[in-house]
Amino acid sequence: MSKLAHLWKRLSPASAFEAAMSPHMERLWRLALRFQGNPSDAEDLLQELMARAWQHRQTIQELDAPGPWLARVLYRLHVDRWRRQGGLDASVALDDAMQVEASLDTQTVLDRIAVNEVLEEVNRLPEHQRLVLLLHDGEGYGLKAISGMIDVPTGTLKSRLHRARATIRHALADGTETHTTACQVSGGG
Question: Which of 130, 116, 169 has the alpha carbon at shortest distance from 31?
Fold first, then answer.
């Protein structure tokens, strides 16, 4: 039996639970905040996750890396809340009709805009694209890990990630061109 398993047995259930959860709380908080969009709802979602995790504390103790399991439960709780509020259709379809220019230079566009504009565009994305973008680019999860979290094939995730990035790139390029034109007309820089 590993040293970690022996340590678990010596700790009280509450102490063992806290020890298992504490390394993951910061990342889970960021995910909850990104999923929910505001601190109050994020706290509620995280509280719901903690209650669920307490019920399954034995499972958490047996996992080598409980982080992905916790993120998956957090995501599913988020989707359940979203569906209860009527904000998510159970069968989210890809928006195949959307055509985005892929030739825009991302770095050039990002050099000209503020971070807040990027975040505004991320928040305008369809939920299925926003989720993949936040998990992959924001939290650093790989596509395989995300696939396991949300039960979506890796190929679909690649497509959603590409579309999300292209949509943001296109929207920000349009906004930058509009801003540049307005500055030129008004005599600004």
Answer: 130
- Would the CA dihedral through 37, 39, 40, 42 be positive or negative? positive
What does the alpha-carbon distance between residue 54 and residue 63 come to, in Å, rounded to a whole number?
A: 14
Where does residue 19 rank: exposed (0-12), middle (13-18), buried (19+ CB within 10 A)?
middle
The model's pTM is: 0.53
What CATH number is given to the structural domain containing 181?
1.10.10.10
6 band by pLDDT with thresholds 50, 70 and 90: low
Residue 81 CA to residue 38 CA, distance in Å, equals 14
Among the listed ranges 56-60, 79-83, 95-99, 119-123, which one has the minimum average pLDDT value?
A: 95-99
* Alpha-carbon span 123 to 106, nearest angstrom: 18
Cβ atoms within 10 Å, residue 43: 14
DSSP 91-134: SPPP-TT------S-HHHHHHTS-HHHHHHHHHHS-HHHHHHHI
Q: Is residue 123 part of a domain?
A: yes
Output the pLDDT for position 115. Answer: 63
How far apart (Å, rounded) are the C-alpha atoms in residues 48 and 88? 19
Host domain of residue 27: 3-84
Contacts of residue 53, defined as CB under 8 A and 6 or more positions apart, other chains included, come to: 17, 21, 60, 70, 73
